Automatic annotation (TrEMBL):
Keywords, in A-Z order: Glycosidase, Hydrolase, Monooxygenase, Oxidoreductase, Signal
One Pfam family linked to the record: CBM_2
A GO term, aspect molecular function: polysaccharide binding
GO biological processes: carbohydrate metabolic process
CBM2 domain residues: 201-296
PANTHER family (alphabetical): CHITIN-BINDING TYPE-4 DOMAIN-CONTAINING PROTEIN, GLCNAC-BINDING PROTEIN A
Cross-referenced Gene3D superfamilies: 2.60.40.290, chitin-binding protein cbp21
Domain of life: Bacteria
Protein name: Lytic polysaccharide monooxygenase
Length: 296
């Protein structure tokens, strides 16, 4: 889906030619998180499909995993299910949806849903009970684009447009989440100035320290970096528990217990005084976070 753009197509469209720009982390944190999770979610934006569903979309795709097609090709598209401040495209109450099909597979149909009033994509992962069916189109011949009119009269504000494209060339179903702002303009996260971390005393032998820095926040959530530093001796594994945090997604580490991040298999070994970084998305308030680092 190119208009309104899907989550991963929007990331590719905005950052494909500028993906090394550090500003992505501040100005577009959900795209940055998707990039950290698996860059191919962006590069292969048109590959989010499942085969052999036989039209049983609601039975095959679990609640909370609609935007990733039920974690198809996991972990490539998993992050697209993550709630947060995805950039939302401003649309009028009546507009034309455009799906771009470079391979010209054709379409048996497009099933188009809209999230129900009150659903908040910044704090909730999309489930079937969260959407209403707007329309089901007829077939489309094999061509480069498929278009259909969408009428959202009576709706205003942020929503998720969810489209299932059933390709014609074989039993192949594409699952497409587009964040929209009905009757308004494009919405983008407000960058949060990076605060100066409180200096941490130099850890002793066999110890590590951790500093949490909030890099972005929004209503109901935030994004933070975790900087782990070894003490005066080498560290071969670390674990950081962030007191006061409810972590919904982590990268460069493994999440457990809702507030604990353990090193990944490639960043656990640190030379004396060396450091590494992880990151996470949290729900609720970002105030009063207290990280504790433990050597494993």
């Amino acid at each position: 889906m190119t208009d309104p753009p899907t989550r991963n197509y929007g990331c590719w469209d905005r950052w494909g030619d500028d993906h090394l720009n550090p500003g992505m982390q501040q100005t577009d944190p959900m795209c940055w998180g998707a990039w950290q999770h698996d860059p191919n979610a962006m590069w292969n934006w048109n590959g989010l499909y499942r085969e052999g569903v036989a039209g049983q979309h609601e039975q095959v795709i679990p609640d909370g995993q609609l935007c990733s097609g039920g974690r198809t090709q996991s972990p490539r598209y998993d992050y697209l299910d993550t709630p947060g401040p995805w950039v939302a495209k401003g649309v009028p109450h009546q507009f034309t949806l455009t799906l771009t099909d470079g391979a010209q597979h054709g379409a048996d149909y497009l099933r188009i849903y809209i999230s129900k009033p009150g659903f908040d994509p910044t704090t909730e992962a999309l489930g079937w009970d969260d959407v209403d069916l707007l329309k089901v189109t007829g077939t489309y011949p094999s061509q480069g684009t498929y278009q259909t009119d969408v009428d959202l009269t009576g709706r205003n504000g942020r929503a998720v447009l969810y489209t299932v494209w059933q390709a014609s060339h074989l039993d192949q179903s594409y699952y497409l989440c587009s964040d929209i702002n009905i009757g308004g303009g494009d919405t983008t996260p407000t960058p949060t100035p990076t605060p100066t971390p409180t200096p941490t005393p130099t850890p002793g032998v066999g110890e590590c320290s951790a500093v949490v820095t909030v890099v972005n926040s929004w209503s109901g959530g935030y994004q933070a970096d975790v900087r782990v530093t070894a003490g005066s001796s080498a560290v071969n594994g670390w674990r950081v528990t962030v007191g006061g945090a409810t972590i919904t997604q982590a990268w460069n580490g493994t999440l457990s217990n809702g507030n604990t991040i353990t090193n990944a298999n490639w960043n656990g070994s640190l030379a004396p005084g060396a450091s590494t970084a992880a990151g996470f998305l949290g729900s609720g308030s970002a105030s009063g976070l207290t990280p504790t680092c433990t050597v494993l």
